[in-house]
Design brief:
Glutamine transport ATP-binding protein GlnQ; MetN_ABC_transporter-like; nucleotide-binding; four-stranded antiparallel sheet; alpha/beta; AAA+_ATPase; binds adenosine-5'-diphosphate; binds magnesium ion; ATP binding; six-stranded mixed sheet
Length: about 260
Amino acid sequence: TDVSTNQTEARRASAMSDEVAIQIVGMHKWYGQFHVLKDIDLTVARGERIVICGPSGSGKSTLIRCINRLEEHQRGKIIVDQTELTNDIKKVDEIRREVGMVFQHFNLFPHLTVLENCTLAPIWVRKTPKAKAEELAMQYLERVRIPEQANKFPGQLSGGQQQRVAIARSLCMNPRIMLFDEPTSALDPEMIKEVLDVMISLAEEGMTMLCVTHEMGFAKTVADRIIFMDGGEIIEQAPPETFFDNPKSERTRLFLSQIL
Ligand code: ADP
Ligand code: MG
Protein backbone atom coordinates (compact mmCIF):
# COMPACT_ATOMS: atom_id res chain seq x y z
CA THR A 1 0.00 0.00 0.00
CA ASP A 2 1.24 3.48 -0.73
CA VAL A 3 1.19 6.51 1.53
CA SER A 4 -2.14 7.90 0.34
CA THR A 5 -3.87 4.53 0.74
CA ASN A 6 -2.53 4.27 4.29
CA GLN A 7 -3.82 7.76 5.04
CA THR A 8 -7.25 7.01 3.65
CA GLU A 9 -7.41 3.86 5.73
CA ALA A 10 -6.34 5.72 8.84
CA ARG A 11 -9.00 8.38 8.32
CA ARG A 12 -11.68 5.80 7.72
CA ALA A 13 -10.69 3.83 10.79
CA SER A 14 -10.77 6.90 13.00
CA ALA A 15 -14.07 8.11 11.57
CA MET A 16 -15.75 4.75 12.02
CA SER A 17 -14.99 4.12 15.64
CA ASP A 18 -14.59 5.81 18.95
CA GLU A 19 -12.08 3.14 19.76
CA VAL A 20 -9.65 3.76 22.62
CA ALA A 21 -6.03 4.18 21.52
CA ILE A 22 -4.42 4.59 24.94
CA GLN A 23 -5.78 4.00 28.40
CA ILE A 24 -3.81 4.89 31.51
CA VAL A 25 -5.36 4.07 34.86
CA GLY A 26 -4.05 4.98 38.32
CA MET A 27 -0.49 5.01 37.05
CA HIS A 28 2.46 5.89 39.28
CA LYS A 29 6.15 6.05 38.56
CA TRP A 30 9.18 6.55 40.75
CA TYR A 31 12.79 7.27 39.84
CA GLY A 32 14.37 5.57 42.85
CA GLN A 33 12.77 7.36 45.81
CA PHE A 34 11.48 10.21 43.70
CA HIS A 35 7.74 9.99 42.98
CA VAL A 36 7.69 11.47 39.48
CA LEU A 37 4.19 10.52 38.23
CA LYS A 38 1.26 10.44 40.64
CA ASP A 39 -1.99 8.67 39.94
CA ILE A 40 -2.24 9.42 36.24
CA ASP A 41 -5.58 8.68 34.55
CA LEU A 42 -5.76 9.39 30.85
CA THR A 43 -7.82 7.93 28.03
CA VAL A 44 -6.99 8.85 24.47
CA ALA A 45 -9.48 8.06 21.71
CA ARG A 46 -8.36 6.88 18.30
CA GLY A 47 -7.68 9.95 16.16
CA GLU A 48 -7.54 12.31 19.13
CA ARG A 49 -4.92 15.07 19.24
CA ILE A 50 -3.59 15.85 22.69
CA VAL A 51 -1.18 18.57 23.72
CA ILE A 52 0.62 18.18 27.04
CA CYS A 53 2.10 21.27 28.64
CA GLY A 54 3.42 22.27 32.04
CA PRO A 55 6.54 23.60 33.72
CA SER A 56 9.94 22.02 33.23
CA GLY A 57 10.34 18.98 35.49
CA SER A 58 6.59 18.35 35.80
CA GLY A 59 6.89 14.83 34.31
CA LYS A 60 5.72 15.40 30.71
CA SER A 61 8.59 13.52 29.06
CA THR A 62 8.40 10.72 31.60
CA LEU A 63 4.68 10.30 30.93
CA ILE A 64 4.98 9.95 27.18
CA ARG A 65 8.11 7.79 27.49
CA CYS A 66 6.07 5.38 29.65
CA ILE A 67 3.64 4.95 26.74
CA ASN A 68 6.22 3.10 24.65
CA ARG A 69 8.07 1.80 27.68
CA LEU A 70 11.22 3.83 27.31
CA GLU A 71 10.44 4.17 31.02
CA GLU A 72 8.74 1.63 33.26
CA HIS A 73 5.84 2.49 35.54
CA GLN A 74 5.49 0.81 38.94
CA ARG A 75 1.75 1.01 39.68
CA GLY A 76 -1.44 1.17 37.69
CA LYS A 77 -2.07 0.24 34.08
CA ILE A 78 -1.07 1.45 30.66
CA ILE A 79 -2.97 -0.12 27.78
CA VAL A 80 -1.97 0.78 24.23
CA ASP A 81 -4.06 -0.51 21.35
CA GLN A 82 -5.67 -3.02 23.71
CA THR A 83 -2.33 -4.45 24.81
CA GLU A 84 -1.25 -3.88 28.39
CA LEU A 85 2.36 -2.80 28.92
CA THR A 86 4.07 -5.28 31.21
CA ASN A 87 7.50 -6.88 31.37
CA ASP A 88 6.47 -9.12 28.47
CA ILE A 89 9.05 -8.01 25.94
CA LYS A 90 7.07 -9.41 23.01
CA LYS A 91 4.18 -7.12 23.86
CA VAL A 92 6.53 -4.18 24.38
CA ASP A 93 7.95 -4.80 20.89
CA GLU A 94 4.45 -5.04 19.46
CA ILE A 95 3.51 -1.72 20.98
CA ARG A 96 6.73 0.00 19.93
CA ARG A 97 5.96 -1.00 16.36
CA GLU A 98 2.63 0.84 16.56
CA VAL A 99 3.87 3.92 18.39
CA GLY A 100 6.21 6.40 16.71
CA MET A 101 8.23 8.84 18.78
CA VAL A 102 9.90 12.10 17.85
CA PHE A 103 12.36 13.67 20.28
CA GLN A 104 13.61 17.18 20.90
CA HIS A 105 17.10 16.31 19.65
CA PHE A 106 16.03 14.32 16.56
CA ASN A 107 18.07 11.21 17.55
CA LEU A 108 18.96 10.35 13.95
CA PHE A 109 21.79 7.91 13.28
CA PRO A 110 24.66 10.24 12.27
CA HIS A 111 26.60 7.64 10.27
CA LEU A 112 23.60 6.69 8.11
CA THR A 113 22.15 8.72 5.25
CA VAL A 114 18.68 10.21 5.49
CA LEU A 115 17.33 7.37 3.35
CA GLU A 116 19.12 4.73 5.44
CA ASN A 117 17.76 6.29 8.64
CA CYS A 118 14.28 5.86 7.17
CA THR A 119 14.69 2.30 5.89
CA LEU A 120 16.61 0.76 8.81
CA ALA A 121 13.64 -0.24 10.98
CA PRO A 122 11.31 -1.24 8.12
CA ILE A 123 14.03 -3.55 6.75
CA TRP A 124 15.24 -5.05 10.05
CA VAL A 125 12.11 -4.95 12.20
CA ARG A 126 9.31 -5.25 9.64
CA LYS A 127 11.37 -7.38 7.19
CA THR A 128 10.29 -5.14 4.31
CA PRO A 129 12.34 -5.81 1.16
CA LYS A 130 14.98 -3.07 0.69
CA ALA A 131 13.61 -1.71 -2.61
CA LYS A 132 10.09 -1.49 -1.18
CA ALA A 133 11.36 0.19 2.01
CA GLU A 134 13.26 2.75 -0.06
CA GLU A 135 10.24 3.48 -2.21
CA LEU A 136 8.09 4.04 0.87
CA ALA A 137 10.80 6.16 2.53
CA MET A 138 10.97 8.40 -0.54
CA GLN A 139 7.22 8.90 -0.41
CA TYR A 140 7.43 10.03 3.21
CA LEU A 141 10.45 12.24 2.52
CA GLU A 142 8.36 13.88 -0.18
CA ARG A 143 5.56 14.36 2.31
CA VAL A 144 7.87 16.20 4.70
CA ARG A 145 9.24 18.05 1.64
CA ILE A 146 12.88 16.97 1.64
CA PRO A 147 13.22 14.18 -0.94
CA GLU A 148 16.29 15.93 -2.36
CA GLN A 149 18.15 15.34 0.93
CA ALA A 150 17.79 11.54 0.80
CA ASN A 151 21.46 10.77 0.25
CA LYS A 152 22.89 13.31 2.67
CA PHE A 153 23.95 12.63 6.24
CA PRO A 154 22.04 14.20 9.15
CA GLY A 155 24.98 16.48 9.98
CA GLN A 156 24.65 18.13 6.57
CA LEU A 157 21.05 19.23 7.26
CA SER A 158 19.51 22.10 9.22
CA GLY A 159 17.74 21.35 12.49
CA GLY A 160 14.33 21.74 10.89
CA GLN A 161 15.26 19.36 8.09
CA GLN A 162 16.64 16.82 10.58
CA GLN A 163 13.44 16.93 12.58
CA ARG A 164 11.40 16.38 9.43
CA VAL A 165 13.59 13.35 8.66
CA ALA A 166 12.89 12.09 12.18
CA ILE A 167 9.16 12.41 11.54
CA ALA A 168 9.44 10.68 8.14
CA ARG A 169 11.49 7.91 9.75
CA SER A 170 8.74 7.30 12.30
CA LEU A 171 6.05 7.32 9.63
CA CYS A 172 7.91 4.65 7.63
CA MET A 173 6.89 2.19 10.35
CA ASN A 174 3.26 3.10 9.68
CA PRO A 175 2.48 3.87 13.34
CA ARG A 176 -1.07 4.19 14.66
CA ILE A 177 0.01 6.63 17.36
CA MET A 178 2.65 9.38 17.30
CA LEU A 179 4.34 10.81 20.39
CA PHE A 180 6.18 14.12 20.13
CA ASP A 181 8.42 15.39 22.93
CA GLU A 182 9.08 19.10 22.39
CA PRO A 183 9.89 18.55 18.71
CA THR A 184 10.51 22.24 18.03
CA SER A 185 12.28 23.31 21.23
CA ALA A 186 15.79 22.81 19.85
CA LEU A 187 15.05 24.64 16.60
CA ASP A 188 15.84 28.15 15.48
CA PRO A 189 12.62 30.18 15.24
CA GLU A 190 12.54 30.23 11.44
CA MET A 191 12.51 26.42 11.36
CA ILE A 192 9.71 25.87 13.83
CA LYS A 193 6.96 26.44 11.29
CA GLU A 194 8.22 23.86 8.79
CA VAL A 195 8.06 21.19 11.50
CA LEU A 196 4.70 22.32 12.89
CA ASP A 197 3.25 22.30 9.35
CA VAL A 198 4.17 18.63 9.01
CA MET A 199 2.56 17.91 12.40
CA ILE A 200 -0.58 19.81 11.40
CA SER A 201 -0.90 17.76 8.21
CA LEU A 202 -0.55 14.55 10.23
CA ALA A 203 -3.28 15.76 12.57
CA GLU A 204 -5.54 16.56 9.61
CA GLU A 205 -5.13 13.00 8.38
CA GLY A 206 -6.48 11.62 11.63
CA MET A 207 -3.29 10.44 13.31
CA THR A 208 -3.62 9.86 17.04
CA MET A 209 -1.10 12.29 18.51
CA LEU A 210 0.28 13.19 21.91
CA CYS A 211 2.48 16.26 21.71
CA VAL A 212 4.47 17.78 24.51
CA THR A 213 4.94 21.34 23.30
CA HIS A 214 4.88 24.93 24.38
CA GLU A 215 3.71 26.05 20.94
CA MET A 216 0.39 27.38 22.11
CA GLY A 217 -0.67 28.50 18.63
CA PHE A 218 -0.33 24.89 17.52
CA ALA A 219 -2.21 23.75 20.63
CA LYS A 220 -5.09 26.14 19.92
CA THR A 221 -5.55 25.11 16.31
CA VAL A 222 -4.75 21.40 16.45
CA ALA A 223 -5.48 19.98 19.90
CA ASP A 224 -8.77 18.34 20.79
CA ARG A 225 -7.67 18.45 24.40
CA ILE A 226 -4.91 20.15 26.37
CA ILE A 227 -3.44 18.54 29.43
CA PHE A 228 -1.63 20.62 32.01
CA MET A 229 0.82 18.84 34.30
CA ASP A 230 2.58 20.11 37.38
CA GLY A 231 4.52 18.21 40.04
CA GLY A 232 3.90 14.82 38.41
CA GLU A 233 0.12 15.21 38.32
CA ILE A 234 -2.44 16.06 35.69
CA ILE A 235 -3.81 19.27 37.13
CA GLU A 236 -6.30 20.17 34.46
CA GLN A 237 -7.50 18.98 31.07
CA ALA A 238 -9.86 20.72 28.71
CA PRO A 239 -10.49 21.60 25.07
CA PRO A 240 -8.34 24.57 23.99
CA GLU A 241 -11.15 27.18 24.21
CA THR A 242 -11.84 26.33 27.84
CA PHE A 243 -8.20 25.80 28.71
CA PHE A 244 -7.01 29.20 27.47
CA ASP A 245 -10.07 31.34 28.18
CA ASN A 246 -11.28 29.86 31.40
CA PRO A 247 -8.65 27.77 33.21
CA LYS A 248 -9.96 26.30 36.45
CA SER A 249 -6.76 25.92 38.41
CA GLU A 250 -4.63 28.69 39.83
CA ARG A 251 -1.50 26.78 38.78
CA THR A 252 -2.72 26.65 35.17
CA ARG A 253 -3.38 30.40 35.23
CA LEU A 254 0.08 31.07 36.59
CA PHE A 255 1.69 28.86 33.93
CA LEU A 256 -0.27 30.52 31.13
CA SER A 257 0.62 33.98 32.39
CA GLN A 258 4.29 33.02 32.18
CA ILE A 259 4.28 31.59 28.67
CA LEU A 260 1.69 33.62 26.76
P1 ADP B 1 9.49 17.43 31.93
O1 ADP B 1 9.58 16.69 30.64
O2 ADP B 1 8.12 17.89 32.27
O3 ADP B 1 10.47 18.56 31.99
P2 ADP B 1 10.66 15.03 33.06
O4 ADP B 1 9.68 13.95 32.87
O5 ADP B 1 11.82 15.09 32.15
O6 ADP B 1 9.88 16.43 33.09
O7 ADP B 1 11.23 14.96 34.53
C1 ADP B 1 10.41 14.96 35.67
C2 ADP B 1 11.26 14.90 36.90
O8 ADP B 1 11.94 13.65 36.95
C3 ADP B 1 12.35 15.97 36.97
O9 ADP B 1 12.47 16.37 38.31
C4 ADP B 1 13.58 15.24 36.50
O10 ADP B 1 14.73 15.80 37.07
C5 ADP B 1 13.35 13.85 37.01
N1 ADP B 1 13.96 12.83 36.14
C6 ADP B 1 13.81 12.72 34.81
N2 ADP B 1 14.47 11.65 34.32
C7 ADP B 1 15.07 11.06 35.39
C8 ADP B 1 15.90 9.90 35.56
N3 ADP B 1 16.22 9.12 34.51
N4 ADP B 1 16.31 9.62 36.81
C9 ADP B 1 15.97 10.38 37.86
N5 ADP B 1 15.18 11.49 37.78
C10 ADP B 1 14.74 11.82 36.56
MG1 MG C 1 10.68 17.04 28.91
